[in-house]
Fold this protein.
Amino acid sequence: MAAFRSQGLAEPISGVNLVRFENVGVRYGSGNEILRDISFTIEPNSFQFLTGPSGAGKTTLLRLVLLSLKPTRGLISLFGSNVAELKKNELTELRRRIGVVFQDFRLLDHLTTYENVALPLRVQGKDESSYRAEVQELLQWVGLGHRIHVLPPTLSGGEKQRAAIARALIVRPELLLADEPTGNVDPSLARRLLRLFVELQKSGTSVLIATHDLSLMDQFDYARRMVLSDGRLIVYD
């Protein structure tokens, strides 16, 4: 991963939180709030886990950070900007600074593994010669070097998971959101993927991983834990 790490990230703005939630609440329709009074910050170059029982709202919270869901109340700031005050094109620019690993992978079936991972760079208008070696190296690192030219329908669930992770990492996001990123891989590969996230964090990316795997979190005792329960968030620094 030397070539991947060497390119680095821009230095974060000093004193600015990447994410700030203040008394955020979410409800669907006229029902009770599923998240209430959620307050936390994510600092530059930090690593944190988000956990809680099934149905606690982990994915909902990630969607709020990604700006794909609006809160019912409260303040959300990303990269120092109040998202409620931003125009649509400004929100789009903020999203480009966030990498996301979804539970459902969202790979494009008509593109090869290589093309799926390279897609964010193509969308940015970069020439393939500038990123070809980097994409290939990253795919080798996640164990897909022999699957570069195949289509997603021929990949196993674990292989699709690894391709989705590589696609999120290839743009070196300032913030990485991962929803159960090790749920479809064996424990050995899960540890390897977590090491990749750690290396990314060391290079300047803040990482937020939603997981229910307590044994996985125990391997990273320096990481902050945020626990959702009964619609509220408890943060353990």
